[in-house]
Amino acid sequence: MVISAVTANSTPVVRDWSPNGLNSTQMTFIMTAIRSTIQGFQRGLYNNGNFKISDQCLQSSFNDNMLKVEEAISSANYFNMIAAASPIYQVAYNLQKSCNLNELSWMLMSVCEKGTCNVNQISANIVKNLFFITGSMNTIVELYVDGLKIKLNNLEQCESNFNEMGSEVGRIVRLLFGFNKNKIIDRSNFY
User: Fold this and answer.
1) Could you tell me if 184 and 112 are in contact, meaning their C-beta atoms sit under 8 angstroms apart?
2) Which pLDDT tens digits describe the chain residue by residue (191 residues)?
3) Considering Cα of 27, then 30, then 33, then 37, what sign does the dihedral take?
4) Can you tell me the distance from the alpha carbon of 149 to that of 146, in angstroms, rounded to the nearest whole number?
5) At the top level of its lineage, which domain of life is listed (predicted)?
6) Could you state, in order of their start, the residue ranges of all structural domains in the chain?
7) Cα(161)–Cα(166) distance, rounded to whole angstroms?
8) pLDDT of amino acid 2
9) What b/e string do you get for 41-61 counting C-beta neighbours within 10 Å, with b at 16 or more?
10) Alpha-carbon distance 82 to 48, whole Å?
């Protein structure tokens, strides 16, 4: 009897971070923020303010898939998660192919292959670019605080803020690792 009372009282409670679920407007803002951050990151990393990500990257047709994924994960129901496998796969595939995450990952790893990810090189890059890195960090904090004020009626401001925030993060990565898109290891010659 004591064992059953302890077991009943020690069952973990799973708290849903969105107990009322997300609606399509909220998901549109989340998807815009993710897409803009990815685009901005690549702008900062490549030092190219005109870089534009593919229009297919997390296009609005993925909102329904993401709502299904969010419902499945927040319900903590294994059957719902299995049922959401197809939408999860579709979103992951889109992130790899249309959002350039596969190629971006390769480029970042190839920089480390060249030996620029060691502590000495990163430390030298920090000293050399300290003011730029500090400026970028200040901008990120400012944009984050401003982002908390964005209402769900200004999609352009959301896109602009997350684009700039991603760009500053990309810039920091570029400065820390001395990233140069033109000097990455060619994939075809790597294997």
Assistant:
1) no
2) 444 444 444 444 444 445 567 788 888 888 999 999 999 999 999 999 999 999 999 888 888 888 888 888 887 778 888 888 888 888 889 988 899 898 888 888 888 777 778 889 889 999 999 999 999 999 999 888 877 776 667 889 889 999 999 999 999 999 999 888 877 766 665 54
3) negative
4) 5
5) Eukaryota
6) 21-189
7) 9
8) 44
9) bbbbbbeeeebebeeebbeee
10) 40
Give the position of tokens 């909220």.
Answer: 26
Question: Which residue type, as a one-letter code, is found at position 3?
Answer: I
Specify the DSSP element, H or E, that contains 178. Answer: none
Helix and strand totals (H; E) in the chain: 9, 0
Using alpha carbons only, give the angle 37, 134, 173 rounded to the nearest 5 degrees. Answer: 45
Structure tokens at 104: 């971006």
DSSP letter at 12 equals P
Please say whether the dihedral angle defined by the alpha carbons of residues 61, 67, 69 and 70, taken in this order, is positive or negative: positive
- In this structure, are residues 57 and 94 in contact, taking their beta carbons and an 8 Å threshold? yes
* pLDDT for residue 5: 46
Cα 73 vs. chain centroid, distance in angstroms? 18
Task: Tokens for 173, please give them.
Answer: 């990565």
- Which pLDDT belongs to residue 72? 82
Six token digits for residue 26 = 């909220």
Rg of the chain in Å (alpha carbons): 21
Residue 175's alpha-carbon distances to 70, 100, 153, 170, in angstroms, are 35, 21, 35, 9
